[in-house]
Amino acid sequence: MGVSLKNKACTIISLLYFFNAIVEVVAEAYALDTIIYITKPLIPGLLMALYFYSSKNDSKLFYVIMFFSLLTNLLFIPNTETALFYGVIAYTIHRIFLLVLIFRIVRIKNYLLFILATIPLGFIFFFIFTSSDVPQNSYYLIFFHNLIAAVLGGIAIATYISNDNRQNSYLLISVLLFLGLQLVIYIEKYYLVNAITYSLRPLAMSLNILAFYVFYKFVILSEKIKLQ
Question: Which of 98, 125, 171, 221 has the largest count of CB atoms under 10 Å?
Answer without folding.
Answer: 171
